[in-house]
Design a protein that fits this description.
Layout: E1 5-7, E2 10-12, E3 19-24, E4 29-35, H1 39-58, H2 61-77, H3 79-90, H4 94-114, E5 121-124, E6 131-135, E7 141-145, H5 153-164, E8 168-172, H6 178-190, E9 198-200, H7 206-215, E10 219-225, H8 228-241, E11 244-248, E12 253-257, H9 263-275, E13 285-291, H10 292-307, H11 327-342, E14 346-349, E15 364-367, H12 374-377, E16 384-390, H13 393-401, E17 408-412, H14 416-425, E18 430-433, E19 452-453, H15 458-463, E20 469-473
Parallel strand pairs: 7-8, 7-10, 8-9, 10-11, 12-13, 12-17, 13-16, 15-16, 17-18
Antiparallel strand pairs: 1-2, 3-4, 5-6, 6-20, 11-19, 14-15
Helix pairs in contact: 1-7, 2-4, 2-6, 3-4, 3-6, 4-5, 7-8, 9-10
The structure holds nicotinamide-adenine-dinucleotide.
Nicotinamide-adenine-dinucleotide binds at residues 145-150, 154, 172, 174-175, 206-207, 210, 225-227, 230, 233-234, 248-251, 282, 379, 407, 447, 452.
Length: 475
């Protein structure tokens, strides 16, 4: 199991003796330690990427595509092992962890196909005499900073399109989940990714690491996934060097249920939208806006299925909700629940702090929550479903849009025309219409407003990692 930094194709310890302690969130105990990269290591990684990028950009797109396809295959061959690693360091149920690997690998297959289809255009200038040629060269070295909630997929969703376009990358995984990142990097090497094209440098000290990585003149772009709060800090830093940026930030998804919805399907979709990956997803349903005619029925049914979810270590068969990532996460979730209850919400199920070991929180449903309650304004990032009844569609849309976030939204109705009309009015980068899951490597993933800048996946995904060059000519 790799526990060192991958820089320029060689595995090495950091320039200091510092190590990152990786915990098992199901017990709170240390699993292992890995090397922690210093600012000097970040600089060395950008150096290595800059050298490797030249040859990689010149490699034929077909060859790059074939290497990416090998990456897809090798990840699937190691799906069980990688899934177990995710569950060990993140805690999510094994089925979710293995599902994440299939999703993460798919970005390599999709982008192996995109690598050979990166097209430009040629046109006539309106005056008729000149030609306008437009093409898309790679942007150069990309620094990638990723969160702990998807230890594999948030990395491959960036690395695969970046490599397809001909870039080299330096990845800083979250310090909570560096093991999956390092093992995936080892597999990418085995799949034929040349030395230096992918560098992985976890660190205990993200701030100084990032300063060094972005100070390097070879760095051309920063691709970040994480909280809006940290995203703002990185954007300010990138402004100093006018770096290209892509930002996948926080969410506050409304899950809207109309009176005419198929309630069985809505509850099933709600469980997917809320509880996948132990409820720690950016697209998680954060607020349930339910039309008054079905609000009680929906809430009771949701309460019943939520209370039946088994809580425990993600590796145990039958477990539907693993531990949260750390003690601070549990404290924050419990604080939001307590505040909602003290403001008049009713607990339908859950809501009680659990004894250790491990960082567990019970699946919780709250009825009659006010739209302005803190729990509806903040990203819960835990297994709590606050239900807000509504009577008027315009009011409901105002409530749904009354947040600085705009990542995901869900709409359940039997009337597809209404569903589409409501979807169009939601300030949200992605809408699940009668669906509780929306992630797909072939679709553009990303948010409006303060949920992000740019898109990952689809054909848009590879263009994020490209420049646009225009050549003026005539013949
Ligand atoms: P976070 O913002 O705390 O951390 C994300 C990454 O940023 C980590 O690698 C962390 O080490 C690094 N970081 C923190 N401070 C930094 C600094 N000063 N300089 C450089 N790097 C720094 O987020 P998290 O807690 O790891 O993840 C949860 C958040 O991520 C949630 O808000 C969630 O919605 C969001 N998220 C968004 C998407 C999306 O696609 N939009 C996907 C997954 C997660």
């Amino acid at each position: 199991m790799p526990d060192q930094l991958l820089i320029g194709g060689s595995w090495r310890n950091g320039s200091t003796d510092e190590r990152i302690s990786v915990l098992d969130p199901a017990t709170g105990e240390e699993l292992t330690t890995v090397a922690s990269g210093s600012p000097e290591d970040a600089t060395a990684a950008v150096d290595a990427a800059a050298k490797a990028q030249i040859g990689w950009a010149q490699t034929a797109p077909r060859e790059r595509g074939e290497i990416l396809r090998n990456c897809w295959q090798i990840m699937l061959e190691h799906q069980d092992e990688l899934g177990e690693l995710i569950t060990a360091e993140h805690g999510k149920p094994m089925a979710d962890a293995k599902g994440e690997i299939a999703y993460a690998a798919e970005f390599f297959r999709w982008n192996s196909e995109e690598a050979v289809r990166l097209r430009g255009t040629i046109g006539n200038a309106p005056g008729g005499a000149n030609k306008i040629i437009v093409h898309h060269p790679p942007v150069g070295v990309v620094v990638m900073v990723t969160p702990w909630n998807f230890p594999a997929a948030m990395i491959t969703r960036k690395v695969a399109p970046a490599l397809a376009a001909g870039n080299a990358v330096v990845v800083k995984p979250a310090k909570e989940t560096p093991l999956t990142a390092l093992r995936v990097a080892e597999l990418l090497e085995e799949a034929g990714v040349p030395p230096g094209v992918v560098n992985v440098v976890p660190t205990q000290n993200a701030g100084p690491w990032f300063e060094a990585a972005t100070e390097h003149t070879a760095t051309r772009m920063v691709s970040f996934t994480g909280s809006t709060e940290v995203g703002r800090v990185l954007l300010r830093r990138c402004a100093d060097r006018v770096l290209k940026v892509a930002m996948e930030l926080g969410g506050n998804a409304p899950f809207i249920v109309f009176n005419d919805a198929d309630l069985d399907a809505a509850v099933e979709g709600a469980m997917v939208a809320k509880m996948r990956h132990s409820a720690e997803t950016c697209t998680a349903a954060n607020r349930f806006l339910v039309e008054a005619g079905v609000a009680d029925d929906f809430t009771q049914r949701l309460g019943k299925v939520m209370s039946a979810v088994e809580i425990g270590p993600g590796g145990k068969a039958g477990v539907g909700c693993g531990p949260m990532i750390n003690a601070a996460a549990v404290e924050s979730i419990h604080g939001l629940v307590n505040a909602a209850v003290s403001e008049g919400a009713t607990l339908v199920t859950g809501g009680e702090a659990m004894d250790g070991p491990g960082f567990f929180y019970p699946p919780t449903v709250l009825a009659d929550v006010t739209p302005t309650a803190a729990i509806n304004q903040e990203e819960i990032f835990g297994p709590v479903a606050p239900v807000v009844p509504f009577t008027d569609t315009d009011d409901m849309i105002r409530i749904a849009n009354n947040t600085e976030m705009g990542l995901a939204a869900y709409v359940y109705t039997a009337d597809i025309g209404r569903g589409l009309a409501v979807s169009e009015r939601l300030e949200s980068g992605m809408v699940g219409l009668n669906r509780g899951a929306m992630s797909d490597p072939a679709a553009p993933f990303g948010g409006m407003k303060q949920s992000g800048l740019g898109r990952e996946g689809a054909s848009e995904g590879i263009l994020e990692f490209c420049e646009t060059q225009y050549i003026a000519t005539q013949w």
